[in-house]
């Protein structure tokens, strides 16, 4: 009887020590909505950015960009440097274009974005566009 009491006491002490160790590692804090949404929006932005890059890599679009005097590699680098809002806006505009006219419209849209970024001084793709200072 005395021996089972000692064993129970020993097991109880081991259990208490384990509970104290585990509870010291656990933490709880309030979580904001924006901190939970941010990882999802990063994944969505990466998917949108990848969609634009694969669009630029298409042969017909690369030819059109070259016809406008834009190097497709420069276009890909510009897409990689775009903010999340710019990527989402550009994808939304491309998705809203009618079928068949989307390719030309997308090329013109990217061309206009490059001209605007040249005017702002963010890029230097076209020699005929002088940055606003």
UniProtKB/TrEMBL annotation:
The chain crosses the membrane at residues 103-129. InterPro entries: PA2779-like, UCP029543. The keyword Lyase does not apply. Keywords: Membrane, Signal, Transmembrane, Transmembrane helix. It comes from the Bacteria. Residues 1-28 form the signal peptide. The keyword Nucleotidyltransferase does not apply. Pfam families: DUF6627. This is PA2779 family protein.
């Amino acid at each position: 009887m005395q021996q089972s009491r000692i064993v129970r006491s020993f097991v109880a002490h081991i259990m208490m020590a384990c509970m104290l160790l585990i509870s010291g590692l656990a933490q709880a804090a309030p979580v904001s909505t924006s901190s939970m949404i941010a990882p999802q929006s990063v994944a969505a932005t990466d998917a949108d950015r990848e969609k634009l890059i694969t669009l630029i890599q298409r042969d017909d679009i690369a030819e059109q960009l070259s016809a406008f005097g834009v190097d497709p590699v420069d276009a890909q680098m510009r897409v990689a440097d775009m903010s999340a809002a710019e990527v989402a806006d550009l994808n939304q505009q491309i998705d809203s274009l009618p079928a068949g006219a989307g390719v030309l419209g997308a090329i013109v849209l990217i061309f206009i974005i490059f001209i605007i970024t040249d005017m702002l001084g963010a890029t230097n793709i076209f020699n005929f566009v002088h940055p606003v200072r």
